[in-house]
Write a structure and sequence with these properties.
Length: 374
């Protein structure tokens, strides 16, 4: 049975502690920018999505939404959105929902993974414009044929790396580490591999928790920045031999290769904060280990012959995502920018192709966030 009362309670909590979207909802209710328009959405149907869609519908228009992934679809959110008058396609397969949204011939759309956008292209539809919110969607649209309509890239703004990648992951990752291991960070020797926005956040939050942190990066410029941030950047072998917790944040395959894993301390915890599940060479560990133990929920120990036992958390998948941990504020900020981008598109005509995020949209979202944060 859908539990829309639970959804309402969660939305109430969000409105109480971080009311960025309800502030924007007042703006959309007053201006009604979507009146007479049809907007197609292809999103993960979570309570965070419900927060932004509820506010957007105050701006008028017909809203049609297909679920991006059955695993991330909350049936109570589906029921809640339907009560608001949103046409939601979540049963059946993802393709059925996409087809129904394409058939509605939306004027504008917002998408994850460029799944809806690519179907609109293939069906010969010509929306006035769309918004893509993910890195994977931007990669996909760039790899495809020339776009017959404009798509605003909201992934590559300043807020996402500055807040979501850095603070969202940094905070959430260590909450998950403690939840799975029961360990404190204080006094732990942590090695962060990859010092981009994600790695810098992971390192900073580890230090704030009392860990002693070192950094590895293939890019000397990033190593120098880490140095000035106060993190030693020793040669990889030295760093690995000192660490008791290692975190990959490079976004590349095998940034923690088997050759280095053989040199690690016994009991070292291995965590991925980047992308996919191949940053730590788990295949190598599986092939070489003479003993593999389920040490705890989502904790697997690999004993290398004559070497260390290494504790892999969450199968090497991005830990904060698997554990759904950390503050929701960065995601809500990203959704605020998505809503402002849809509003902006109703007033501006762009040429077909990828469109860079107008800086003023992030400035508005930041002003609203600063106001609600006091
Ligand atoms: N866990 C999450 O919730 C989450 C959120 C946002 C982004 N990400 C992912 O995290 C990854 C990093 O994101 P970012 O914004 O920091 O990217 P970034 O490109 O700014 O930083 C990556 C850093 O890793 C370094 N690097 C690359 N290969 C390396 C190697 N073999 N050894 C050591 N360092 C290496 C690069 O030089 C760079 O400094 C990406 O894959 C991104 O998709 C994860």
């Amino acid at each position: 049975m859908p539990d829309t009362a639970r959804v309402l309670l969660e939305l109430g909590r969000i409105d109480t502690f971080f009311p960025v979207l309800s502030s924007l909802g007042n703006r959309w209710a007053a201006a009604r920018p979507f009146e007479g328009l049809t907007i197609g959405l292809h999103l993960h149907l979570t309570t965070l999505t419900a927060t932004v869609v509820r506010e957007l519908t105050l701006g008028g228009g017909r809203w049609i939404c297909s679920a991006a992934n059955p695993a991330t679809t909350d049936p109570s959110v589906v029921a809640f959105l339907r009560d608001l008058g949103v046409e939601v396609y979540s049963g059946g397969g993802i393709e059925d929902g996409l087809e129904a949204t394409v058939d509605a011939d939306p004027t504008f759309f917002a998408d994850v993974g460029f799944a809806l956008g690519s179907r609109l292209v293939a069906a010969g539809r010509r929306p006035r414009a769309g918004v893509e919110i993910t890195r994977s969607g931007i990669t996909r649209l760039r790899a495809g044929p020339p776009l017959p309509f404009p798509v605003l890239n909201i992934n590559d703004g300043r807020l996402k790396p500055g807040i979501e990648n850095r603070h969202g992951v940094g905070e959430g990752l260590w909450q998950s580490y403690t939840a799975l291991t029961g360990c404190h960070l204080a006094g732990r020797r942590v090695l962060v591999i990859g010092y981009g926005a994600v790695g810098a956040g992971v390192a900073a939050y580890a230090r704030a928790g009392g860990a002693s942190v070192e950094v590895m990066d293939v890019d000397p410029v990033r190593r120098l920045i880490a140095h000035y941030d106060g993190f030693p950047t020793p040669p990889p072998l030295d760093a690995v031999r000192r660490a008791k917790v290692m975190v990959t944040a490079g976004g590349v395959k095998h940034s923690l290769p088997l050759a280095l894993l053989r040199e690690a301390n016994d009991g070292t915890v291995l965590i991925n904060a980047g992308h996919g599940a191949d940053e730590i060479d788990i295949e190598g560990l599986e092939a070489e280990a003479d003993c593999v133990d389920q040490v705890g929920p989502r904790v697997v120990g690999y004993r290398l012959p004559g070497g260390p036992q290494l504790m892999v958390l969450a199968g090497g998948n991005p830990l904060n995502i698997v554990m759904n941990s950390g503050s929701q504020e960065p995601v809500l900020l990203h959704f605020a920018v998505m809503g402002l981008a849809l509003e902006w598109l109703t007033r501006h005509h762009c040429a077909p192709g990828e469109v860079a995020l107008p800086p003023e949209l992030e400035a508005i979202a930041a002003e609203v966030a600063l106001a609600v944060l006091g």
